[in-house]
Design a protein that fits this description.
Blueprint lengths: L9 H12 L3 H5 L24 H4 L2 H7 L2 H30 L23 H12 L14 H29 L2 H4 L3 E3 L3 E6 L2 E10 L5 E15 L5 E9 L9 E2 L5 E6 L11 H4 L4 E11 L5 E8 L4 E3 L1 E3 L3 E4 L2 E4 L7 E3 L7 H13 L11 E2 L5 E3 L2 E3 L15 E7 L2 E7 L11 H5 L1
Parallel strand pairs: 2-10
Antiparallel strand pairs: 1-3, 2-3, 3-7, 4-5, 4-6, 4-8, 8-9, 11-14, 12-13, 15-16, 16-17, 18-19
Helix pairs in contact: 4-7, 5-6, 5-7
């Protein structure tokens, strides 16, 4: 639909279709995994067994705005038809009570003045009701001063008609001017990636705005939803954790003048700190992206949402560049919006990388065998396929409280040298005398 309207180039849609076909089989097999936010941004939660349905009637306007278009149009039409039929019945009863519906001989003298002229049946009363409420006057029917009750009914119908017009038109306007309509032209990359950036692994995705009108005060929020178990054994199905977006200003604000790559550095304190390439496929988590801002043309606050499941997170890949400079202006190629390229990256998690760097720089007795250390349960590490339940090695930046002691043997002499583990560097002061 967007391509037909000229909002999206055909190349962009073709690229997205190619990405869907090139997805691995594991993502297709697990495509039925439940998620809270769909790729289109709608909330994927079904509310069942709600006993207090009357609460929705206390806020009729919001309830009508939240309804689907077919239901709103049905209520819009029914409200006018019911009001016209109700007041048509009242006008018909007034004419019947006053005797205006009795047949008269045209040759006789004219009878009494009717309450409403030219009302002879229920059909004529219905037409007069429509004329009164929508202010369409054809000049054939009008209220006379004969019946004060008719004047009262005329006033009541006018007031009620204005109320119905205001409510119905307000609902239609709010449905057409909803903030989520602006979010239709905000696009997110179908896949997120984890790649090294500035020496640290980072979680990244791309966001872009197809319109030329800006999103003022745009902010991006990242949340991780995962199932957790407390120390007491309580299962928390929805545990929300905020993720800090990488920004030198220490805020989540962005200037969405062109497609941006939003990144989150995976370090100590990050919910993704223990995530590795092997454990990614088995993780039960969902990363929700929320972009909020104010529409420049209308001043209405808007919100765009999407989410990424483990099947949609690519390990060891990076987004390609889509911005070029042509004729003294920047050009964006949306056909490459979701394209990625592989990069060299370790399959270890950020936590394991920190521990590995600490072991290598400290020169500990633990020797790495090819693939290094891999997490093997709580508090243990396995090396070469065998679990080691000893205490986990500390990172290189943590200073040891108790210094170690070693005995150095050289040329038949034994000398005790005290070593301080500071940054995993061994001081070898005094060993020059031994070499002599």
């Amino acid at each position: 639909m967007l391509a037909r309207k000229g909002l999206l180039p055909d190349g962009f849609l073709l690229t997205r279709l190619a990405e869907d076909q090139n997805q691995p089989n594991r993502s297709r097999a697990k495509s039925q995994r439940a998620r809270f936010i769909t790729k289109t941004g709608s909330c994927n939660v079904a509310h069942k067994n709600i006993r207090e349905q009357g609460r929705f009637l206390q806020d009729v306007f919001t309830t009508m705005v939240d309804l689907k278009w077919q239901h709103s149009l049905l209520i819009f039409t029914s409200a006018f038809l019911c009001s016209w039929m109700l007041f048509a019945m009242i006008w018909w009863l007034l004419a019947f009570a006053h005797g205006d519906l009795e047949p008269r001989d045209p040759n006789d003298e004219p009878g009494p003045i009717p309450c409403v002229t030219a009302i002879h049946s229920f059909t004529s009363a219905f037409l007069f009701s429509i004329e009164v409420q929508v202010t369409i006057g054809f000049g054939g029917r009008m209220v006379t001063e004969e019946c004060p009750a008719a004047i009262t009914v005329l006033i009541i119908q006018n007031i009620l008609g204005l109320i119905i017009n205001a409510v119905m038109l307000g609902c239609v306007f709010m449905k057409t001017a909803q903030a989520n309509r602006r979010a239709e032209t905000l696009i997110f990359s179908r896949n997120a990636v984890i790649a090294p950036r500035n020496g640290r692994p980072a979680f990244m995705f791309r966001v872009g705005d197809l319109r030329k009108s800006m999103i003022i005060s745009a902010t991006v929020q990242l949340q991780v939803i995962r199932r957790t178990v407390t120390a007491e054994g309580e299962v928390i199905p929805v545990c929300q954790l905020d993720i800090q977006v990488e920004n030198p200003l220490r805020s989540n604000g962005i200037f969405l003048v062109s497609p941006l790559i939003i990144s989150h550095t995976i370090e100590r304190g990050s919910p993704l700190y223990e995530l590795s390439a092997q454990s990614l496929a088995n993780e039960d988590l969902e990363i929700i992206v929320i972009l909020e801002g104010v529409v420049e043309t209308t001043g209405i606050s808007m919100q765009a949402r999407t989410s990424y499941t483990p099947e949609e997170i690519l390990w060891g890949r990076r987004f390609v560049s889509i911005i070029t400079e042509e004729d003294a202006r920047y050009s964006v190629d949306y056909s490459k919006f979701g394209n990625t390229v592989p990069v060299r990256m370790s399959s270890l998690s950020a936590k394991e990388l920190d521990q590995t760097r600490g072991v290598q720089e400290g020169g500990s007795d633990v020797h790495l065998q090819g693939w290094g250390l891999v997490r093997a349960g709580r508090g243990g590490f396995r090396r070469g396929g065998r679990a080691c339940e000893s205490s986990a090695p500390q990172p290189w930046y943590i200073q040891s409280e108790k210094p170690d002691k070693e005995v150095v043997e050289k040329k038949g002499q034994k000398k005790t040298v005290q070593l301080e583990v500071i940054g995993r560097q061994t001081e070898e002061d005094g060993l020059g005398d031994m070499s002599d």
